[in-house]
Fold each of these.
Amino acid sequence: MLTEVRHAARATIVSALAGAVLVATLAGCANKDDGVLPGQDTSHGTEVTQDMCTRLAAESISRASVVTGAGERVVVIGDSWASGFGLDDPGLSWPRYLDGEVRVSGFGGTGYARGSMATCGPISFPERVPDVIAQGADLVVLEGGINDSKSDIADVEKGFRATLDELKGYDVIVLSSPRVNSRAKAIRVVNKMMRRVSAEYGVTYINVFDLKLPMLADNTHLTVAGHRQFGEIVARRIAESRSETVPAHG
């Protein structure tokens, strides 16, 4: 059964980016104080269950089936913020507010390091890149770090470097991890690493840790208004970072 779940999780990204449609049924929400993974059963501690993998895979497909805008091909690789966890319509998650033809590969609980989500299969950011960019991309936006704040920083850096290695030759924007109060200290460590390595690779790093956004009751995921605000700010900061006259934030 576990092998089947892993194959299903891998197929999620491929079929989603090919335009498959599946309505996700979301269940559970993160603990207010601990900021646990989306859909995680807190009665099982930090265990990532097969049921959780299946539900997050369904959510990932549902979001990836929504392609918005027109123009340059933009691919967003992210976590539950990108997949729209907690929204009645995942298609309203923040990437819809970016300029261009936007496709989304979001999977709750994931990041640059494999971490606890390895149970669900090869779905960390570097493992997803080849399938995600198979249809081509003019710009790749990376949105992660919240979940990585619970992993060893050496593992996170290894995964972050692997992601950038997979994306050599592409125009890449790295977003810092946004602020989640329950993990703020650890997130700062992840952001410091991403800023340093982004500079080393010569890719644009944009700080979004400064933002205070409307959150759901779990204090970890965005409301519909929060997604709109985040998406519009990110779109503006990306535009500024690509301008010769206006410097990038952060």
Amino acid sequence: MKVTIIGATGRVGSSVVRKLANVPDIEVFAGARQVEKVPRGVNITPFKIDLHISPELLNEELPDSDAIIFAAGSGGKDLLQVDLNGAVKVMRGAEHKGIKRFIMLSARNSLNLESFSEPNISPIANYLIAKHYADKWLMNNTDLDFTILQPTTLTEEPATGKITIGQYASNSNTIDDVAETLIAILKNDRTIRKVIAMSNGDTPIEDAVFNL
């Protein structure tokens, strides 16, 4: 399988790349603006991608692959250009390339409009708004075989290997557990066209995803 990771130097994206490094039968194209920071492995091909460029240039940079995991983010600094428009350009690029499988790393409450409005507005409302419209474009304006993963707050704590799927059993996710869940989703076609809530929990990741 050939997999493209967009955001390969971010917190989650780099964890995905490291976990897939040297895995037999998987070829990884790791996309980032700073390719020198991409984790290395015998099956990893770093490539430069800038989500600010035109759709036409982005299409040229996007490798041919079987699936895309979109894990890029601006860290709140460039929400419209990266988290929203950059994501949509990659979706359009996937369709242009004939890449059907598209896994989106999103966020808790990205599809909950109440989170963007008073009186209970989220402190990260603008980020959620960007993710909302990117997710909606993926769901409603493409024919991609999508999965949208909605973890809650990301933490730097050691991986637990256990999660809850479909609800939020806690208010946190370790970064490595989110990365492992994205990989489990990639391996499981039963996740196609599903929006999946997740948090740290009590079920081993492979089991939780398999039992969706």
